[in-house]
Amino acid sequence: MIRRLLLWLVLALAIGTLLWGAVCALFILTRPTVTFTPEELARPAADLPAGFLWGTATSAHQIEGGHDNDWTRFESVPGNIEGGDRSTVATDHWNRMPEDVALMKAIGANAYRFSIEWSRLEPEEGAWNESAWSRYQDLVRQLRDAGITPMVTLLHFTLPNWLADRGGVVAAEFPERFSRFAAQAGRRLGDDVELWCTINEPNVQMYMGYLAGVWPPLETSPARAASAWVGLARAHAGAARALRSVDPDARVGIALNQMTLQPEWRYWLPDWLTVRLVDQAWNWAFYDAIRDGRVRLRLPGASIDETLPDLEGSADYFGLNYYHRYLLHAVPGAPQGVQMRPGPGMQSELGGDPPPGDSYPEGLLLLMREAQKRYGLPIYITEAGIADDEGVMRGPLIRGHVEAIQRALSEGIPVRGYFHWTLMDNFEWDKGYRPRFGLYRVDRETLERTPAGGATVFAAFSPER
Ligand code: FCB
Question: Which domain range does residue 433 map to?
Answer without folding.
Answer: 54-460
